[in-house]
Amino acid sequence: MKDEQGSFSCGVESVKNNGFLKKDFFVDPDIRKAEGLPPRAFTDPAFLELELEKVFRRSWLPVSPDAYAEFLEVPGAQVPFSMLGNPLFLQCDSEKKPHVYPNVCTHASYPLVRKSGVVERIVCGQHGRVFTLEGAVRDPKFAVSKKFPRKCDNLADLPLEAWAQFFFVAQNDPAASFDEVFSLMRDSVARLSVGGMRRVIQTAEIREVEGNWKQHAWNYLDSMHIPLIHRSPDGLVDALYFSSYRTECYPHSVLQWAYAANPKIGFLPEDLPARFRDPDDPERRVLALWWFVFPNMAFSFYPWGLSVNLYMPVIGRPDKTEFHWHHYVADERFYRLREELWHMEKVDREDTEAIEATSKGLRSMFATRGLFSPGREAGAHWFHRLIYASLFEQQ
Ligand code: FES
Ligand SMILES: [Fe+2]
User: Fold this and answer.
1) Model confidence at 275, in pLDDT bands (50, 70, 90)?
2) How far apart are CA 150 and CA 153, in angstroms?
3) Å from CA of 67 to ligand 2 middle
4) Taking every annotated instance into account, which residue ranges of this chain make up the domain Rieske (predicted)?
5) Interaxial angle between packed helices 45-54 and 378-392, expressed in degrees from 0 to 180 and rounded to the nearest 10
6) Ligand 1 atom closest to 110 (CA)
7) Is the omega angle on the peptide bond into residue 111 within 30 degrees of 0, that is, cis?
8) pLDDT tens digits, residue range 124-145?
9) Structural domains in the chain?
10) 394 against 24, higher pLDDT
């Protein structure tokens, strides 16, 4: 329920460029000329604020799996959760349709939902304002108010989409439709029955790690570090044919993939679209599909299932990232071998150490804007360019 200005709530002003000048952050669309984002983009709290406003509030982000695990498909079911410091709740309406509403009363900002449950109506605990399950306000105490009800006295029905076992929500008008952002990834894994994969809870699913959130995204998109950071023996580099490594950049996502070094592991060719077949060796197997979805989501598909990483900014702390890691299992036998065959934890450790070291460099007086290797850093360049464009070129 947007007001006339297109905002989801009354009187919320968007941040102008926080004093940052476009020319200081320009990332050329031509990789041969482009310089990366300046170090300040990774260290300045005001830049992070701008990203939260202009990138994150306009992006599709997944609802916490703990919230939707608790969510019942019965009229009135509700589950509170938060996203980037904003309180929200999932609400099932009278037709069993899910919604995400801000968990903030439109009268005086008291939280509407304190714990999961099933209700007939949403009632604010502070002064008793009532909302229907569809978010419409009912408040007889305001009947003679000259302005009541304004559109924004109702609950904002935030854009919500479902795919497989995930819900994605945008906290404001999304910069692109859900299909535009996710359809390529969705189509590439259509035969993998993602919705049927079983969530396996990890010991540390959410942890705070060193480094700006963009460093983690950049690292995921950087294949050039694999032979060095994930080196032999027993490194990720040994599991794949590095010469077959491909990086495909799309408007909202990037796919990286490679053939497996071991002909016995990897996806069966019939489980992936025909374009992943090697015409010279049609039985060759793809080791993994590594999808990055802008701005901060990594969906790594393996024959054992799916590993999801989210690189969430920490409000006010550009040097830290809240690192989310969730597993969804399709094949238990392969899952048990994930360390041996895909080196999951080892790769994570090696990346975390490298990012921590880089984070120190970025904060030093010697950090500079680097160039990109045109043949090898397409993913990294794509990411820097899209951050720049989202902040300084999009409305
Ligand atoms: S804050 Fe909810 S009714 Fe006043
Ligand atoms: Fe890595």
Assistant:
1) very high
2) 5
3) 29
4) 65-169
5) 80
6) 1
7) no
8) 999 999 999 999 999 999 999 9
9) 61-170 (2.102.10.10), 188-392 (3.90.380.10)
10) 24
| Cα separation, 376 vs 201, whole angstroms | 35
Q: 120: which residues sit within 8 A by CB, 6+ positions away?
A: 76, 133
List, chain by chain if needed, residues with CB within 6 Å of any ligand 1 atom. 105, 107-108, 110, 124, 126-129
Higher pLDDT, 215 or 203: 215
Q: Which of 112, 114, 129 to probe ligand 1 with, by most ligand atoms within 8 A of CB?
A: 129
The tokens for 323 are: 């690192």
The pLDDT tens digits for 352-387 are 999 999 999 999 999 999 999 999 999 999 999 999
Residue 231 CA to ligand 2 centre (angstroms) = 10
To test the pocket of ligand 1, the residue of 107, 121, 123, 155 to mutate (highest count of ligand atoms within 8 Å of its CB) is: 107
Q: What is the SS3 assignment for 236? A: helix
Report the complex ipTM: 0.97
The terminus-to-terminus CA distance of the chain in angstroms comes to: 20
Whether pLDDT at 11 is above 80: no
- For the segment 106-118, what is each residue's pLDDT rounded down to a tens digit? 999 999 999 999 9
On the question of pLDDT at 204 being above 70, the answer is yes
> How much is the pLDDT for 6?
46
Alpha-carbon distance of 97 to 142, in angstroms, equals 29
Q: How far is the CA of 361 from the centre of ligand 2 (A)?
A: 18
Ligand 1: which of 101, 105, 130 to mutate, judged by most atoms within 8 Å of the beta carbon? Answer: 105
pLDDT of residue 303: 95
- Provide CB contacts within 8 A for 266, sequence distance 6+: 259, 260, 284, 285, 286, 287, 288, 303
Nearest-CA residue for atom 4 of ligand 1:
127
